[in-house]
């Protein structure tokens, strides 16, 4: 067996070329992937192309939408779950709502929890994934919620 010393650790069976050191100091071997067959490579390429096409556009909240969300927030002030659910329902009745919009403009920090509560109350809410810029300018994949009117669960 081959042995080496990394950061004062004596590791048996490690090879400098085929291993990496984790943040915790442990040395783990790198595993080589086997070559892909042509069918698998085509399927993976198609999936990646579909994902790129679906998430090409970055979702931007319009100024009118921001004003309306702030009006909803002012009309239903409060931090309890029922008030947050009421704000979310009012916003969803006017159109799709992203996680970042709910956090920024409706002051709902646990958006997914409130959406789950609304679903338990019988509302049918669909979840999509969109790209939206964060406050720091990075684009993120986030949830976009859509209320299905007239559907009962």
Overview of the molecule:
The protein has 153 residues and is an alpha+beta fold. It contains five helices and eight strands. It has helices spanning 38-54, 63-75, 81-93, 99-105, 111-120; strands at 3-6, 9-12, 19-21, 27-29, 58-59, 97-98, 125-133, 139-147. Helix 3 (81-93) crosses helix 5 (111-120). The longest helix is centred in the N-terminal third of the chain and has 17 residues, at 38-54. Residues 6-18 and 26-32 have low confidence and may be disordered.
Which descriptors would you attach to this protein?
single chain; 153 residues; alpha+beta; 4-stranded mixed β-sheet; two-stranded antiparallel sheet; 5 helices; 8 strands; globular
Distance between the termini: 62 Å
Low-confidence stretches: 6-18, 26-32
Order of helices and strands: EEEEHEHHEHHEE
Count of helical stretches: 5
Report the radius of gyration as a whole number of Å.
Answer: 24 Å
What structural category arises from helix and sheet content? Answer: alpha+beta
The overall average pLDDT, rounded, is: 76
Number of strands: 8
Strand content: 15-25%
Helicity, as a percent range:
25-40%
Reading side by side through the largest sheet, how are the strands ordered? 5-7-8-6
Q: State the shape.
A: globular
Could you state the oligomeric state of the chains shown?
single chain
- Describe the main β-sheet briefly: 4 strands, mixed
Give a short summary of the structure.
The protein is of the alpha+beta class and 153 residues long. Helices cover 39% and strands 24% of the residues. The strands form three sheets. The protein has a four-stranded mixed sheet with strand order 5-7-8-6. A two-stranded antiparallel ribbon has the order 1-2.
